[in-house]
Amino acid sequence: MEDKIFMSIVVGIIMMCAVYLILSKSLLRIIIGTGLLSHGVHLLLITMGGLPKGEEAPPLLGEHSAKGYIDPLPQALILTAIVISFGVTAFFLVLAYRAYQELGTDDMERMIESEDHWE
Predict the structure, then answer these.
(1) pLDDT digits (tens, 9 = 90+) for 57-68
(2) What does the domain layout of the chain look like in residue ranges?
(3) I need a surface site. Which of 7, 33, 66, 87 has the fewest CB within 10 A?
(4) What is residue 111's predicted lDDT score, i.e. its pLDDT?
(5) Using CA atoms, how far apart are residues 9 and 14, in angstroms rounded to an integer?
(6) Pick from 35, 45, 33, 36: which is nearest to 78 by CA?
(7) What are the angstrom distances between the C-alpha of 37 and each of 11, 51, 87, 106, 119?
(8) How far apart are CA 39 and CA 81, in angstroms?
(9) Confidence (pLDDT) at 57
């Protein structure tokens, strides 16, 4: 039980840092913040999925399967979420690189100002 509390605090700190980065002006920091937020969600899912401790609770079905079985669904969801977050991060990086090529800056306020010149 103490491990879940500790991991919940770690997940809270990671998400706090991610929200701080997402609210910044730099486009690269926003991308890092979204990646950090997705990692925080992955940790939250794996923590709430429940991992047994010790030899008395193996993760596989066996002779003592009643108390040692772990639901594989959170692990499958996390694996899928990792692949999706990698694709989204790659798309964000390409989008940011293209925006930097066009506008010459990664500052969000300058990007908004330069958008007014296009109209």
Answers:
(1) 555 555 655 555
(2) 2-118
(3) 66
(4) 81
(5) 9
(6) 45
(7) 9, 22, 15, 20, 34
(8) 9
(9) 53
